[in-house]
Amino acid sequence: MAEQDTSRDFTSNIGRIYLVYTGGFAAFVLFLAALEQFGVSNQVIGYLFVFFTLAIYAGIGILSRTMQVGEYYVAGRRVPAVYNGMATASDWMSGASFVGMAGTLYVLGYDGLAFVIGWTGGYVLVAVLVAPYLRKFGAYTIPDFLGARYGGHMARTIGILILFCCSFTYVTAQIYATGIIASRFLGMSFELAVFVGLLGILVCSMLGGMRAVTWTQVAQYIVLIVAYLVPVILLAQMTTGVPVPQVMYGEILQEITALETSLVEKGLARASEITPHLQPYSSYDMLNFFALVLCLMVGTASLPHILMRYFTTPSVKDARRSVGWSLLFIFFLYFTAPAYAAFAKLEIYQNVIGAPLEELPKWIYTYGQIGLVKICGIEATTLEAVRAACLAKGDTTGILSFSDFSINRDVIVIATPEIAGLPYVVAGLVAAGGLAAALSTADGLLLAIANALSHDIYYRMVDPKASTKRRLIIARIMLVGVAGLAAWVASTKPSDILSMVAWAFSLAAAGFFPALVLGIWWKRASAAGAIAGMVSGFGLTLFYLIATQYGGMTPWLGIQNISAGIFGMPLGFAVTWAVSLMTAPPSPKTEAMIEAIRVPKGGTYMDK
Amino acid sequence: MNAGEKAAAKKAAGHHADYWPRTRRLMLITIAIWAVLGFGIHFFVTVFNDIVILGFPLGFYLAAQGALIGFVVLIFWFSRKQEELDSRYGMAEDE
């Protein structure tokens, strides 16, 4: 009871609590800025940033500990729509979104916007087709819903397998990202940094499950959005005189287009080397562009760690609204990313390409030293090394040409503070933001996996009579086990696994979407139909991914494998439909369940 | 039975029967708008790009910001419409 009361207290004061938190964070950043002025070293500032934010998350995680099943799995279903929106936004935006998105747009120009459209538009599908109905149903996990709707362990087990395939590679990549960020800014070894990240993840999730993850994700959203916006706002102020990068980069786009032509005219680049920033379909063809948009959108509406966030709202109505809030909070980052790309591209086309080697900006060497910027084929560590490498290539002009320069896409966001000549504290802020983004996504994913193991496998299939205490202990053991395994895999720097993350969307889209949507919107969908649909849709997608990536298979219609779901998804729908019509219709009990979840009135179905 | 009573009786009987078709229609409308924002307008990117506002070619702008704003507004609009349906047919949750 006492636990109930304190959490009521918390819910009614929540606005004030997060306002104080935000103010405290701002004061902390200013304090570090002052320390820097007094000559405190960058290393110390980096450490303070990382440890202060981790301590806050850990504090929230410990305060939110719980021994109640409903609190552990769905945060007691008391998370207001707006806060669930913030939590979902940080659950959604991964380390890769935070660090890599702007870089992708830098490289691909217009075609990169397929990611921007795809990773936002899916929320419409979440709001309209799936989330409110799953909330009314009241499951703890996605496989739990599949098990109830398609009667039995078969659908549940397939659900768990698909979930594991989508989420495990994803969480490994998040832990890898925390390791990269922590090692880069704290100077510790990558392997050690991975386990520091692991601890950061576990303190947030282990004691309080969904409840703790929810409230740390809200805190992490605030850190990550501030960290993302501040550097580019300052950069826009310096470059254009107006601190609204999202509006001001229009002018910059025009300058970039002009520079693209003049670089070629000056003989610094060949026309074939430059991807015109504004021109559609210069990297992807039209078919691939739209296939990618569709797969990312449908994948969004199928990924378990996102869908389960909407299990935590107080009502069906709040679940719907909460999707709107989620997208609004995500929007703030995604509509800024193209501005980052534009400002960075202007800097590089204006001050780097065509500059004499002696006059390259200092940040080139800062990032060259950690292997992220290459000039004339070598890492740009010092002027002497670069000069020698360019001479060896037969380039005697001493002027940097387009083809001699290459930059890792992650640098775009990380280097912005230095490009703008901002103090180190801003770079530290960006590191804290990237860490928040990676940790919050890792938490959500780990919970999705561990809950499927503890709730669906242990409680539903192995020991349905288990006591509350036992269930929660098992849930925590699973969490630690999965987290440890993911950290171990991440520490081996598996390049294959990291490139597979983008596959999660196609796998989820083809595996889950038809079964979820038809399960809600088509009463006739039968267990056999759904099982056949999931197996065939997911199977075809997995086959296409592996065959094109490792088997050397020629892509069908030229579709790149990141959009593999474009084949599996329609197959999943078609097979579910055809097999459902060929097999017996669902039982009257299942029909009654579908009737019940279609109306908001009457309380969660599972609780009855 | 006068016209008002008839309508009331029909409403009472038709409560649930009408609710789902209307919900489904709202779903189809929302999905149609989603398809236009996510795909439809971007087919014409090269046409739109001839219009330039504040330096942004319109086709680029629609993909970088316009569609996103549309999605956010669409979800809140949909939520409101569905809430209206819920309360009109007596299907809303008890507060």
UniProtKB/TrEMBL annotation, chain A:
Q: How does it sit in the membrane?
A: Multi-pass membrane protein
Statement: the UniProt record of this protein carries the keyword Transport: yes
Q: Which UniProt keywords apply?
A: Membrane, Transmembrane, Transmembrane helix, Transport
Q: Which residue spans traverse the membrane?
A: 18-38, 44-64, 85-107, 113-134, 155-177, 189-209, 221-239, 289-311, 323-343, 424-453, 473-491, 497-521, 528-547, 559-579
A GO term for molecular function? transmembrane transporter activity
Q: Where in the cell is it found?
A: Membrane
Q: Which InterPro entries match?
A: Na/Glc_symporter_sf, Na/solute_symporter, Na/solute_symporter_VC_2705, Sodium:Solute_Symporter
* Predominant subcellular localization, coarse grouping: membrane
Q: Name one Pfam family in it.
A: SSF
> What GO cellular component is one of the record's annotations?
plasma membrane
Task: Please name the PANTHER family in this protein's record.
Answer: NA(+):SOLUTE SYMPORTER (SSF FAMILY) (PTHR48086:SF5), SODIUM/PROLINE SYMPORTER-RELATED (PTHR48086)
UniProt record similarity statement: Belongs to the sodium:solute symporter (SSF) (TC 2.A.21) family.
UniProt protein name: SSS sodium solute transporter superfamily
The organism named in the record is Tepidicaulis marinus
TrEMBL record, chain B:
Annotated Sodium symporter small subunit domain residues: 17-91
Per UniProt, which keywords does this protein have? Membrane, Transmembrane, Transmembrane helix
Q: Name one Pfam family in it.
A: DUF4212
Q: Which InterPro entries match?
A: Na_symporter_ssu (IPR019886)
Residues that span the membrane, as ranges = 26-45, 51-78
Protein name, as recorded = RNA polymerase sigma-32 factor
